[in-house]
Amino acid sequence: MSSNTGPSYAHKDSGRSGRVHTIARLPAVGRVYAMGAAAIMLALTLPPERANQILAILAVGFAYPPLIYLVAKYSGHSRTVGYLAFSIDGALVGAGMALIGFAFVPSLVLSTMLVAAGLVMGGRGLLIRMVLPAVIVSALAWPHVAVNFEAHSQGLPLYMGAGIISIFLIYVSYLANYTSQQLIGAKRSLESRNDQVRSQANLMASMNRVAQVVNSTLDLGRVMAAIRNSLSDVVEFDQVGLLFVDRANRSLTIDRYIGTNADALTAKLSEFELSLDESNSVFVLTAVNNKPYFVDDTEAARAKMSPSDVKVHDLSPSKSLMTFPLSIHDEVIGVLALANTENHVSAGEEELNVISRHVEFVATAIRNARMYEQIKSAQRDANAANEAKSQFLANMSHELRTPMNAVIGYSEMLKEEAEDQGAEDFIPDLDRICKASKHLLRLINDVLDLSKVEADKVELYPEPIEIATFIEEVSNGVRPIIEANGNTLEVDTHGEMTGIVNDETRLRQVVLNLLSNAAKFTHDGTIRLLISHYRDKDQWWLDISVADSGIGMTAEQIHQVFDPFTQADASTTRKYGGTGLGLAISKRYCELMGGTIVVESEEGKGSTFTVRIPANLESSTSDTPSDSPGIAHVQELPDTGATILIIDDDRSARDLMQRLLVREGYRVLTAEGGKTGLELARESRPDVITLDALMPEMDGWTVLGELKKDPELSGIPVVMVTFVDEPSKGFALGASDYMTKPVERSELLSILNRLGQPEERKVLVIEDDDDTRELICRWLEQEHWEVHRAADGREGLVQFGSLRPAVVVLDLMMPEIDGFEFLATLRTEFPDDHSRVIVVTAKELFPEDLERLNGSVERIIHKARAPGEQLLQEISRHLSADRVPV
Amino acid sequence: MTHILLVEDNEMNQNMLSRRLKRHGYEVEVAADGERAIAMVAERRPDLILMDISLPGRDGHDITRELKASDLNRSIPVIALTAHAMKSDRDKALAAGCDDYDTKPVELERLLAKMQAALSGRSVPS
Question: How far away is chain B from the Cα of A543, in angstroms, using its nearest Cα?
């Protein structure tokens, strides 16, 4: 009997009114009888002249057992007293044997009782606790008593001893019999539960097969065939028909039949419509009432059938017919008809239930197929629109610039000629035309730039940038406008300006824009351009900030400053010029480069715009580091970043996620289909996979199934990222998380952040007591651990091998393989494993136990010393502390 | 006087650019398409060619390639002019053998600087 088989910490071991611990309660009655009998036997063994000793023996024999029980009960330490009592038992037996000079027969009886009681009550540990005191007391007494083995081996003591032994043996036999009866009973109840579980499992397996088909295909015919096969164990059908509800025409149309006479039926009934008003048709009833119908004998029912039902029946006579409504979100979209054309079938409530649950899959399959069609067509439209838009942009770019060329050219020329010919009157007007046409050209350019970014048509051309030259160029370019307002430009750099690779043209456009803005809004002030190159979180960054001492902005203006066409106010355009698009374009470019642009400003004090972009665009946007030798930071990939595999057939979705994740320091791999995705997953073992559901050829559900089937890949967490809103299906197939498109940036990042370090949060709880295990597991789940359970050491080892958890919470006393053995196997089979083991036990640990655990566990938490809540807190406190294994 | 060949199909641009260049002391002749341009190069031996890229028939890249393939004409600098303002357009022009590249609408100061540079045997960054 292990003291560890219950949630012991739940047995509060304190308080006078508390329950008495098992170790004190169970042996109490036995102790009364055994000690009483032993006392009488000893009393009879001693000669009458040793009356004092006889009285003392009887007093102790009868008073000690109830007394020790009372002490256990009221001391508040019943467990400790309970264990102590066994040692006292041993000491008393030793003393008794010494008193009778170790007379052979009574001594034999006493020692046998002692050993048997120890073994029956608690095994080796308890035996030692009992026998050791007896041996010690005997050994101490040996030199002081007259040892006489022969004495008192006859007569009453002999009979009494024999009697006690017989009674004791009968009692032990009774115990053994009782225990085996209990075991047999338990075995029977387990077997019957096993049968139940097996039939449930069969049903689940069959549902699973259908689910696999539903998930792997959008072909309704295949889904229906799978259901017919899968149901053959339950009820035999040879024909399955699918009817759709047409709400506009208030009718039911027959989509298809499979099975017996299927082709003939489908062909003949293709134009057939059943009005929803034909209220005695079994198909209409099914759809209208949203419940299944069962006609066990269709021949007999023919007389009462509606005209349409008769028509269907006569085309392919069936013996029995079952109809089920198909509904999506509580709306009936169709009817599934199952027919047997050969035999009558019988079906009860249970069969109908099973079939209904299979039929739900058809509804799901229909929904998937419809949604897929919708999305595909929306995608086609969107692609076509996008294509038209970019074609339009390309044409417009050329068509607008050509006439502008002439307008600007001629007005400039006229101005020059007017100057030459001294026609001074014309010059101011020609000047205005020049300025306006140049403004118009800038506006056209900006609008085109912005449209290109918005249409996702801008491609970056990263090239190594010489920052000194870059600064010289932008300063020269902006000098005239800076000086025009009496400003001065200060330039400063920070850090080693090497290894910078970016789209120089676009970056120059951004910086020029910021500088000319600053110049426009500042008078007789200072404009500072500061460029810094630095490393942060495994990535090199380039910060470019432009600070001015100009008019600044109000909070309201700051809020809108990057929006297109919303300059500080309408008069700004008139007063300061510009198109109002520069900052909007700059912001889009920075984002495209994987960076940001922010502004700090105070009205009247000036503004500071800061661009923050990855210094090396090549190393942060491509999967493979560039091998150009001139660039120093190519290898400076974030080496701690988790690898994410994106599987999605939609290029723009893939690019979007890739850009977002690369910016966050993840390594990103992409695959445009299920097959490539699986290959990549096998090759590169990503830390997390994001998976689209609707893809041509091999869809996401199938990919997910394949991933989870492969023992080498099944451990990789998969996040479904899809338009299809069916999280339960995703989770049922083993997805770790589920997101619906469009992807919310912060949500994706938090999910990946959590799954990206799966080892960190995996915990295996090995505990044989169901209640305790559940309690610990639930607590850990609340603390956001990924919890796995095992009921004994054997199961624990199996799970450990496949999970490789970061933490193991281990009970020591378990059936089959106990905690000690588990640890020993763990350390030999996985020598390089660094998982942390926390022992939670009710076992009183002896030095030799500690010796065995030494070096293998991080912490031992005693259930009795940290009862209830405290235990959980202890575990979680310990887990959250970032310690290394001892 | 420096002799410029302007290859340009748009009449308005022909007129405008040639007039402006003449005002800056250049002698300008115009070819309206590629075939004409090749013939005029052989005949008139210009000091520099301004080449529009979008031409009817063979485009400016094509003409430039042909001119640069001939030992006789290779030394005549060619500046491409195009309304396409993408970086890839510049790359394409340079790949075809143009010595420099400028965008339309022409910013005369910038074009004049590029022409000066090309004539003196070096190019300036665009």
Answer: 25
Residue A178's contacts (CB-CB under 8 Å, 6 or more residues apart) are none
Which pLDDT value is given to residue A3?
Answer: 39
Task: Encode pLDDT of A736-776 as tens digits.
Answer: 888 877 677 777 877 777 676 545 668 889 988 888 888 88
Distance CA(A753)–CA(A748), nearest Å, equals: 8
Tell me what pLDDT residue A882 has.
42
**Tokens representing residue A776 in the block:** 């610990």
pLDDT tens for each residue of A109-159: 888 888 888 877 767 788 888 899 999 999 998 888 878 777 665 677 777
CA distance to partner chain A, nearest, from residue B10 (Å): 9
How many whole angstroms separate alpha carbon A717 and alpha carbon A737? 8
A216 band by pLDDT with thresholds 50, 70 and 90: low
Please say whether the dihedral angle defined by the alpha carbons of residues A646, A649, A653 and A659, taken in this order, is positive or negative: positive
Contact B85 A408 (CB under 8 A): no
- Give A251's strand partners: A246, A275
Query: Where is A238: in which H helix or E strand?
Result: none
**Cα(B122)–Cα(A817) distance, integer angstroms:** 85
Closest CA to A618 of A472, A486, A500, A717: A500
The pLDDT tens digits along chain B (126 residues) read 899 999 998 888 888 889 889 988 999 999 999 999 999 999 999 999 999 988 888 889 999 999 999 888 889 999 998 876 555 677 788 888 999 988 877 888 889 999 999 998 754 444
pLDDT band, residue A814 (cuts 50/70/90):
confident
**Contact assignment for B83 to A397 by CB distance below 8 Å:** yes
Contacts of B87 in chain A (CB under 8 A): 461, 505
Instruction: Please report the pLDDT score of residue A884 as a whole number.
Output: 33
- Tell me A510's DSSP state: H
Query: What are the distances in angstroms from CA A580 to CA A550, A571, A585, A758?
Result: 18, 12, 10, 47
Chain B contact for A457 (CB, 8 A cutoff): no
Ramachandran quadrant class, A537 (left: phi over 0; alpha: psi -120 to 50; beta: rest):
left
Residues of chain A found within 8 Å of residue B20, distances taken between Cβ atoms:
409, 412-413, 416
What gap in Å lies between CA A103 and CA A454, rounded to an integer?
A: 105
For B16, the closest of A401, A409, A505 (CB atoms) is: A409
Consecutive H or E run containing A632: none
Q: Is ipTM over 0.90? A: no
The pLDDT mean for chain A works out to 80
Residue A321 parent element (H or E): strand A320-328
- Angstrom distance (rounded) from CA A439 to CA B108: 17
Q: Which residues have a Cβ under 8 Å from the Cβ of A486 and sit 6 or more positions away?
A: A523, A524
Mutate which of B19, B111, B112 to test chain A, going by most A C-beta atoms within 10 A? B19
| A258 sits in which H/E element | strand A251-259
Cβ distance B16 to A416 less than 8 Å, yes or no, reads no
Our CA-based measurement puts residue B24 at a distance from the nearest CA of chain A, in whole angstroms, of 11
Beta-bridged to residue B100, according to DSSP, are B79
Contact A402 B16 (CB under 8 A): no
Under 8 Å between Cβ of A707 and A713: yes
φ/ψ of residue A105, rounded to 5: -65, -55
Give the integer Cα–Cα distance in Å for B110 and B103. Answer: 10
CA distances from A857 to A286, A807, A836 (A): 63, 10, 7
pLDDT single digits (tens) A289-344: 988 888 888 888 888 888 888 888 888 888 999 899 988 878 888 898 888 888 88
Query: Is the Cβ pair A397, B85 closer than 8 Å?
Result: yes
Pick from A731, A729, A697, A703: nearest CA to A647: A703
Q: How far apart are CA A837 and CA A460, in angstroms?
A: 51
